[in-house]
Design a protein that fits this description.
This protein is α/β, with parallel strands linked by helices. It contains 17 helices and 17 strands. A 9-stranded mixed beta sheet has the order 3-4-5-2-1-6-7-10-11.
């Protein structure tokens, strides 16, 4: 099968979050099974060019229709750790991708409307006719719209679209200028509730809604989050649109790239280990303490790795730091905040706790240190307000680090409570789960975890190893994606 991924990220060359990991990991797994996979990405001026091999001109004269005229683009081709990627570079006064940032510009909707148009125009002009276009998040929500309203009349009538939503919170909004720029034009047609008009703002077009309405299938990144988005508040206003399209909406759990995240082969940690050599995890715990100047003590290390923002339950992270210290544990945090208030709050805490030998706050992101924390910590806290899938808990389990999570989205689909999970046998349980968003809830789960560590070390070790036995690689998700590709191809 010939699959083209159209996305705004692909790790490690373009990575702002989990989207990049998914695009790369899924592409690699599909290719390993003999499918032809190509990726179309924006050519940002700040992407990691050191991760691209053999970057060269692939298509110099791409003219993309825009506002009744055309913008000249160059398309470059290169390999990102074995994946064949095409990078689109527009030569325009708008400098769409020469901003020194991937996202966060006032004209983001127009930047990615152009990228979506350019991706389709590249496929058309280069005579590429993939079986499936796999589009991701709001940035490519207009791809299926333009494919089925425009490009299918120009020789692309057989292409099918799978649209994957990684985060419903960011949907992409634009006005009539987007229609005139892309050549869709007909305002009264697209500003219709059944098409692109936002469900709550009649003067706004919603890119993500367009992706849902026009694609052949829609999925999000865990089955439970699909239910939350359809029936709860996690659809952020798109619940009714999902309801109308429920016949083509599903959830597929993300995978983890075990080529990168595997304690048996991890080159970032001093002592590789596996289920049979679990005792060697202690050597990484010692290295973590030495590196972060934590005191050497028989205490569990509780860790948090992730963005410091409301989605990740930052208020519970803050409370858990002090609760863990009071319960005789150590705490390690690795993460940074985009919100200034949260940033200042945690820097205040870092200075306040600086002399405490049982806690370390690393307010940045450091890939090398992340590997060591996964390998050296005993417990991994993931108290998210919402979490479409979550990779932290999946990586933690692979490293024998017991997750303590809030029961939402992909977290509740992958972590099974040691004490209370009635659907699984004790030997299938993997961590500790709490459900409310208050301090008492996270205290209850952490209390049970720390108690198990101190009172029954053998059971704690058993729980850690049970998590390591699960397979959350891309093998199973790729099976599910291939079923959908096959289904929509034959519609």
């Amino acid at each position: 099968m010939y699959i083209v991924q159209i996305a705004s990220e692909c790790a490690p060359v373009i990575k702002a979050g989990g989207l990049g990991d998914v695009v790369y990991g899924l592409s690699r797994e599909l290719e390993s099974r003999g499918h032809c996979v190509e990726l179309i990405l924006p050519k940002y001026n700040n992407m990691r060019y050191d991760h691209i091999w053999g970057l060269h001109d692939a298509y110099r004269e791409l003219w993309v229709p825009w506002y009744g005229a055309a913008i000249h683009c160059s398309v470059y081709c290169g390999w990102v750790h074995g994946r064949l990627c095409f990078f689109i570079e527009p030569h325009s006064e708008d400098m769409f991708f020469d901003r020194g940032t991937y996202y966060g510009c006032d004209d983001d909707p127009m930047r990615f409307a152009f990228f979506s148009k350019a991706a389709l125009e590249f496929l058309l002009q280069s005579n590429k006719r993939p079986d499936v276009l796999h589009c991701h998040d709001w940035q490519t929500g207009l791809v299926p719209v333009m494919l089925y309203e425009m490009y299918k009349y120009h020789g692309m009538e057989y292409q099918r679209v799978l649209y994957t939503i990684h985060n419903f919170k960011h949907q992409g909004f634009g006005g009539s200028d987007v229609l005139w720029a892309t050549g869709l034009n007909r305002e009264s047609y697209y500003f219709h509730y059944d098409r692109l008009r936002d469900n709550f703002n009649p003067f706004s077009l919603n890119f993500m809604k367009g992706g849902i309405v026009y694609s052949n299938h829609v999925n999000t990144v865990s089955p439970h989050h699909a239910w939350e988005a359809h029936h709860g508040s996690c659809g952020f206003g798109l619940g009714h649109t999902l309801h109308l399209n429920q016949h083509k909406f599903s959830g597929i759990l993300n995978g983890v790239d075990y080529g990168i995240w595997n304690p048996e082969t991890d080159t970032h940690i001093p002592a590789p280990y596996g289920i049979e050599t679990f005792e060697d995890k202690a050597l990484n715990r010692k290295e973590l303490r030495d590196r972060l100047l934590l005191r050497a003590a028989d205490k569990p290390i509780v860790a948090f790795i992730g963005r410091l923002d409301d989605q990740k339950g930052v208020h519970l992270v803050h409370h858990a730091m002090y609760y863990a210290l009071n319960r005789g544990a150590q705490f390690v945090l690795l993460g940074s905040a985009t919100d200034r208030t949260i940033h200042d709050w945690f820097w205040h805490e870092k200075r306040h706790l600086n002399d405490n030998p049982d806690i370390h706050l690393e307010l940045s992101f450091n890939e090398d240190l992340a590997h060591l924390i996964y390998a050296g910590a005993d417990l991994m806290l993931v108290p998210s307000n919402f979490e479409p899938c979550g990779l932290t808990q999946l990586i933690a389990m692979k490293y024998g680090t017991v997750p303590v999570v809030r029961g939402v989205g992909g977290l509740v689909s992958t972590v099974f409570d040691w004490d209370y999970d009635t659907e699984r046998a004790p030997e299938e349980r993997t961590g500790f789960v709490f459900y409310e968003t208050d301090n008492y809830a996270v205290e209850s789960a952490l209390n049970r975890a720390i108690d198990l560590y101190y009172q029954s070390p053998q059971h704690f070790r058993q729980l850690a190893i049970q998590g390591m036995q699960y397979d959350y690689s891309w093998r199973n998700p790729a099976d599910e994606y291939l079923k959908i590709y096959d289904h929509i191809r034959h519609k």
